[in-house]
Every structure is written in C-alpha cells, then in structure tokens.
C-alpha cells in the first residue's frame, strides 16, 4: 500500500472528477471535442443544468477547456485537456476493474442476502 | 479509450466502493485485519453508524469479510478479501494521480476563479 493517504483535498478532487456525469463527459470527449448539444446527445440522461454544472467543475479543475471555434456563426467546443487525459487511463482501469469484478460481486451479494 | 462504457451497474458499484469511508476502510485493512474499534481509531472522523453501514456494504460486495476469532472472549475481525485487494492497486493509482495532479488543478482553479 502506498504511503499516500486520503486527505480531504484528495477526497474533494476525486468526488469532483469521479462523479456520475464527469466520468461520462470525459469518456465522450476523449474521442473528439464536442459542442454542448453534442454532449447532451452523447449522454441522454443528463439534464441541461447538470451538464452545465459538471462542465463548469471539469473546466475549473483544468480537465476540460472551452474553445470558441473560428466558424461562422461562432460556436463553443469542449475539449479534454492533458490533465483530463491523464485521468482517462484511470477511468479505463476503473471501468475494466468493474467489468471484471461485477460477476464476483453479484455472487457475494447473493450469498450475503441469503445469509 | 476502452470499449467499456459506464453502465448503471458500473456506476452503482463504483459509488459503493469509492465512497469516502469505504476508501479509508480498505486502506486501513490493507495493512492487517482490524476489529471494529480499531477501525474507528484508524478513521477518527467516522461515526459508529457510518462505519457500520460502510462495512456492511463492503462485506455485501465481497470486498471485506467478517471473521470470528478463536480468542477467549470471542471477537470479530474485518479482513480485506482478494476482491478488495484487487481494488487496492486502483485506489493507490487514484491517490497517486490526485497527489501528482493537485498542484496543476489548484493553478487551474485559481485562473478560472480570476477569469
């Protein structure tokens, strides 16, 4: 086990980047930059309000950046930053761990509930 | 980016094992099995009720097991299971990522707040 212990700062940052919508936004953006409505289509269950708040949090934490495109009319795109990208591998590892572990977890739950 | 996408099942399991107390319990148990009160001393801010609920969740998910010791008087110890151990590397990686990233996140927050 590493010497790193879970400080309040760790906790706060993890809560802000591992929350439900942030994970899905980072996942959607890792393919390519997207506009707000493209993100809404990529994450059907998210409300406009939740998406706005999560994007703002990710932007404030330096994981995502807002870029005004040079198109006519002007538009705003959201892009994942190198900082956001550095989280990507962890998110992949978490999702992979969850996929691998779910069958064993479900067996554990079944025997716990039957006990 | 892996083909694994974030299903509701993924989400539920991640929420249950990455929550505040579960992370700290798994961290405390990775050194050695502990009794309830030893866990409470290892995690000063947790209440009895929160610790009981988190242990129950971890046990139900197969991450921790309750073992009745052969001592006189009998006592109960909590041990991390191989399933719980498999999460340990990810928790280490998350904590390491957070430690490495916090300075850049704080710079991003400062410039976002000043903008």
Largest interface: A-B, 44 and 44 residues
| Strand runs of chain A, count | 3
Helical fraction of chain A: 55-70%
What percent strand of chain A? 5-15%
Q: What gross morphology of chain A would you assign?
A: elongated
Would you give the CATH topology of chain A? Arc Repressor Mutant, subunit A
Q: For this structure, what is the CATH homologous superfamily of chain A?
A: Winged helix-like DNA-binding domain superfamily/Winged helix DNA-binding domain
Unreliable stretches of chain A: none
Q: How many independent structural domains of chain A?
A: 1
- Which H/E pattern describes the elements of chain A? HHEHHEEH
Determine the number of helices of chain A (DSSP H or I, runs of at least 4 residues).
Answer: 5
How is the largest sheet of chain A built, in terms of strand order? 1-3-2
What structural category arises from helix and sheet content of chain A?
A: mainly alpha
**What is the rounded distance between the termini of chain A?**
32 Å
Largest sheet of chain A: 3 strands, antiparallel
* CATH architecture call of chain A: Orthogonal Bundle
Radius of gyration of chain A: 17 Å
Characterization of this structure:
Two copies of one chain form a homodimer. By secondary structure, chain A is mainly α. Chain A has a single domain (8-114), classed as Orthogonal Bundle (Arc Repressor Mutant, subunit A), CATH 1.10.10. In chain A, 63% of the residues lie in helices and 10% in strands. The first copy, chain A, has five helices and three strands, in the order ααβααββα. Chain A has helices spanning 8-17, 20-29, 36-42, 48-60, 82-114, and strands at 34-35, 64-68, 76-80. In chain A, a hairpin with a 7-residue loop joins strand 2 and strand 3 (76-80). The two termini of chain A are 32 Å apart. The A-B interface holds A 1-2, 4-6, 9-11, 13-14, 18, 20, 23-24, 27, 30-31, 59-62, 83, 86-88, 90, 92-102, 104-105, 107-109, 112-113 and B 1-2, 4-6, 9-11, 13-14, 18, 20, 23-24, 27, 30-31, 59-62, 83, 86-88, 90, 92-102, 104-105, 107-109, 112-113. Chains A, B: Pfam families: HxlR.
């Amino acid at each position: 086990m590493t010497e790193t212990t879970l400080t309040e700062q760790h906790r706060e940052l993890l809560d802000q980047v591992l929350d439900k919508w942030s994970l899905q936004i980072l996942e959607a953006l890792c393919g390519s930059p997207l506009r707000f409505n493209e993100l809404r289509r990529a994450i059907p269950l998210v409300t406009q309000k939740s998406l706005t708040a999560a994007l703002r949090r990710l932007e404030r934490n330096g994981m995502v950046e807002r870029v005004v495109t040079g198109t006519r009319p002007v538009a705003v795109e959201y892009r994942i930053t190198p900082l956001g990208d550095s989280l990507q591998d962890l998110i992949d590892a978490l999702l992979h761990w969850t996929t691998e572990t779910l069958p064993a977890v479900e067996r554990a739950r079944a025997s716990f509930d039957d006990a």
